[in-house]
Write a structure and sequence with these properties.
Radius of gyration: 15 Å
Largest sheet: 5 strands, parallel
Strand content: 5-15%
Structural class: alpha/beta
Oligomer: single chain
Number of strands: 5
Strand order of the largest sheet: 2-3-1-4-5
Helix content: 55-70%
Distance between the termini: 11 Å
Amino acid sequence: MIVYLVGMPGAGKSVVGKELAARLGVPFIDLDAEIEQDRGKSVGEIFAELGEPAFRGMEAATLVKASMNDPSVVACGGGVVLEPANRITLRNTGIAIFLSVGIEQLRERVPPASDRPLIRHEGDLERLLAERGPLYREFAAHVVDGSGTPKQVADSIVEELRWSA
């Protein structure tokens, strides 16, 4: 089984993913880290040099590659849900878990910064949540509160997976 973690930047996908993978005894894959390793550039540099559409193409290809690593836990980039083909890959190859975190906590975790290509200004986070929130909820098999510690969130995911087994 592949468990895909989806959610907003700052939802804890990477840190929770590592905890969850260790708990389940399976490999952990971080899509953004894989893209950065393959390209030898940060996500911010890829956005700046090639633009968002090129990055989204790389993300889709990396997701397909990750979908062949069963079992595993995969931390997806926040925008993975924007591409309909990605939503199909997620649905058909594993279980998507949406880590839901309130806007106040997201603001604390992810302040606007130059290294965040889509969260540079006040209001960007809210705009992204308005765009993506319905997509996360629409296709995720489970919605888990991501506001706790990585251990607490991983515990909640394990419990959700038990109920769906």
